Amino acid sequence: MQTLNFKLLVFLLVVFLEPQLLLPQNCPNDLGNEDGSVNLSAGNANNWSGTSIVTGVSGAAETNGSPCALKLEQTAGSGNTYNRWTIPVQLQMNNNEILEGDTVEFSIDANGLSGNARVMVETEAGTRLVDKTFGQGNGWETYTQSFTVPNDGSALFLIWFFPNVGSTNAGASLFDNLIVRDMNGGTGGASMWSETAAGNDIYYETGNVGIGTQSIGDWQLAVGGKIRAEEIKVETGWADYVFEEDYPLPTLQEVEKHIAEKGHLINIPSADEVEANGIELGEMNKLLLEKIEELTLYIIAADKKATELQKVNEDLIRQQRKTNDRIQDLEKRLKN
Fold first, then answer.
1. Contact indicator for 156, 90 with CB cutoff of 8 Å
2. How many whole angstroms separate alpha carbon 210 and alpha carbon 218?
3. What structural domains does the chain harbor?
4. Interatomic CA distance for residues 175 and 120, integer angstroms
5. Contact indicator for 136, 171 with CB cutoff of 8 Å
6. Residue 94 near residue 83 (C-beta atoms within 8 A)
7. Whole-number Å distance between alpha carbons of 62 and 55
8. CB of 155 within 8 A of CB of 56?
9. How confident is the model over 137-142, as a mean pLDDT?
10. Over residues 256-265, mean pLDDT
11. What digits encode the pLDDT tens for the residues 38-71?
């Protein structure tokens, strides 16, 4: 009996202290912004053809770590292959301070359960800012992108959530952890930048940075322009492996053949490759040093051959002198 009462007490404590673990949340049929710097207008299904099922869900199997997520379902036989849930974001209205030219960070989690999930952001004038297809059956995926609000006369931009894009069949998708953050101020949202303890440096740990470009890709820093600096330190591997005994130094004949066939040195990218992909500074410096060290080995080998030939030539000269001396001696004897 005492054991039963103890278990009951523990159960009641868990229920009252951690209700979110046991009781379902009362989730709205919409998706809110996880960041306070931008206020979102209510979502709507104005561009939906056929039946739309919009549900706020809170089960652990249907969210990606937050209390509430949004579930969109498209019924079979829909007359539109681009049914979408729309959330408007107004510029300089609804307590937003977003201006044309501001940088906005956008992030969303999506899970195509039985539909082809897709998320797009577009201004009301039709300028595409974000376009990410998550697909179907891939589980939860997170997509983050920064964009600059264009000067195209729009008073707002629209966030579109597609449950089964490109199909009129039934399909459902989940969306969670929406973040729309004004990186140029806003009305109280937390900054993405943090200060060091000393307060004289700032750092950024949660994503990548683009300067003058939105095409950041997987680079931690992408710059669409020129960089000026007094010194750049690149930490990379080096090419001293060339001096190891088992290094396969190509012969000059092999180098000549490669140049004739490929038009560039061995292990060095071609002009077309550099034009298409650029170069990695650290890797290219290593490869250039590799060529310098190979040239050094060729020069050392050539110097040894030259030294040997010089010795052979000196020996031949000495022998020739001895031969001349003998000839002169014979000629003197014959005259006498």
1. yes
2. 11
3. 18-191 (2.60.120.260), 193-223 (no CATH), 234-336 (no CATH)
4. 13
5. yes
6. no
7. 11
8. no
9. 95
10. 95
11. 888 898 987 787 778 999 998 888 999 999 999 9
